[in-house]
Amino acid sequence: MIRLALLSVSDKSGIEDLAKALTEEFGFQIISSGGTARTLQAAGLPVTKVSDYTRSPEILGGRVKTLHPRIHGGILARTDEAGDLAELAENDIAGIELVVVNLYPFTQTIAKPDVTPAEAIENIDIGGPTMVRAAAKNHAYVTILCQPSQYEGYLSELRSNQAPSPEFRQARALDAFAHTATYDSAIANYFQKLSGAATVPETLTLAGNLRQTLRYGENPHQPAGWYQTATEGWSSAQLLQGKPLSYNNLVDLEAARSIISEFPEPIPTVAILKHTNPCGIAQAENLLDAYNRAFAADNVSAFGGIVALNCPLDGPTAEAMTQTFLECVVVPACNEEAKAVLAKKKNLRVLVLEDLLTGPSQTVKAIAGGFLVQAADNEPADPTTWEVVTQKQPTPAQQAELAFAWRAVKFVKSNAIVVTCDRATTGVGAGQMNRVGAVEIALKQAGEKAKGGVLASDGFFPFDDSVRTAAAAGISAIIQPGGSIRDKDSIAAADELGLVMVLTKRRHFLH
């Protein structure tokens, strides 16, 4: 009985070794198309071109190769059904036992900065997904392999049993349907962006490939995995040293990246985080000063924290970092001196992510029976839209400080309050159930450094009590969204107490 395998892959990793084993060890005959056939022929392996097998030429520049009854009849036939076998014989079709297909590189194509719609569309595979789905549907009789990592497992099955087990075929069918679902999801999302469709579409698909199985999630009893949806972002980061990233590391790192994206070069900026909340953000004329000021903002919380920088890490700053226990450091670049210094801390995870500015355009949260999607809160602040609502006007220095504080409070969990002075946070009140409590925590942490500083609030003040508390601590200016029916009370209190108040008309809740 003929053992027939169809090999047609875009990613040709390992395909020669697989074909060699199939033909030499197990007597398979190989059918192949296009570039795969040429690769196998060049390796001296016996292969029949699809066009020769079907007796139909490849047409339309290769767009139509495998869409033929001799191919799909061979894949979909049930080889224990007399009727199917009779039809195969009547039409001179052989059953295909193995299908090895992976798809045109659509996601890699659209990741290119200069890709055109025509180029993207030409990389939409038609015959490939059809063969994958057909083989997966008929997995009771056919094995589908769609990743090079699956080849060795298949050969092991053959070497042990001469045929893959039903469990193996079913597992590969699951992989195959997930593979085509991910592929179609990428295409659908690309067309949504291309067409400028509504930001809340009727249908939204989410799909990703497992990049890494994580030790656990937020807690040891929670299984977790890291799924990749694109080749950029954290998937492109280089782990210079340290243990593999955990679930909590990745969550914290993304929060750190978000903060740093708000403070692009040239002014050196450092953010230190704990449990996604910044415990210190600072700017300075040099990176070491920026790190020292961010660390000084809350050196207790910085212990075991995450550090993100907006510019390349140098030796002196790396030396300062080694003086305390840190979980992760992420930088756009790292010089050799800094690498040597950090190497002393072998467990410290050090990542280089060249592009710290580009983040997701949407955020997703799962709820029972579905998920919530929103546009990411990543539009830069526009001070020209702000309104000074008090009699006292801000000085240029206060205006700059208010802008810094407003960018910082955006990344603190609600209810959020940030106190800053000289472009460094001095107090942070995060995640409180009421705004007065957040104000009190931030001011207590700032202590004497609150005097002459500014205070930012992610949401409006429903009463004037927070304004009076801030003034009593020495705060000179406040920035907040406004929008409360009692805005006039807070403004009146600011005027009474000689404070500057600026309304941004945009809030930054972060739950």
Descriptive overview:
The structure is a single chain. It contains 18 helices and 21 strands. α4 runs parallel beside α8 (127-137), α8 (127-137) packs antiparallel against α10 and α13 packs parallel to α14. The protein is an alpha/beta fold and 511 residues long. The termini are far apart. 39% of the residues are buried. It has a six-stranded mixed β-sheet with strand order 8-13-12-11-9-10, with helices on both faces. The protein has a six-stranded mixed β-sheet with strand order 16-21-20-19-17-18, with helices on both faces. The radius of gyration is 30 Å and the shape is elongated.
Mean pLDDT: 90
Shape assignment: elongated
Strand content: 15-25%
* Gap between N and C termini: 63 Å
What is Rg?
A: 30 Å
**Spatial order of strands in the largest sheet:** 8-13-12-11-9-10
Largest sheet: 6 strands, mixed
**Number of β-strand runs:** 21
Write the layout of secondary structure elements.
Blueprint: E1 3-9, H1 15-26, E2 28-32, H2 34-42, E3 48-49, H3 50-54, H4 69-76, H5 82-90, E4 98-102, H6 106-110, H7 117-122, H8 127-137, E5 143-145, H9 151-161, H10 166-195, E6 209-214, E7 224-228, E8 238-241, H11 247-261, E9 269-274, E10 277-283, H12 287-297, E11 305-309, H13 315-321, E12 326-331, H14 336-342, E13 349-352, E14 362-367, E15 370-375, E16 387-388, H15 396-409, E17 417-420, E18 425-429, H16 435-446, E19 454-457, H17 465-472, E20 477-480, H18 487-497, E21 500-503
Parallel strand pairs: 1-2, 1-4, 2-3, 4-5, 11-12, 12-13, 19-20, 20-21
Antiparallel strand pairs: 6-7, 8-13, 9-10, 9-11, 14-15, 16-21, 17-18, 17-19
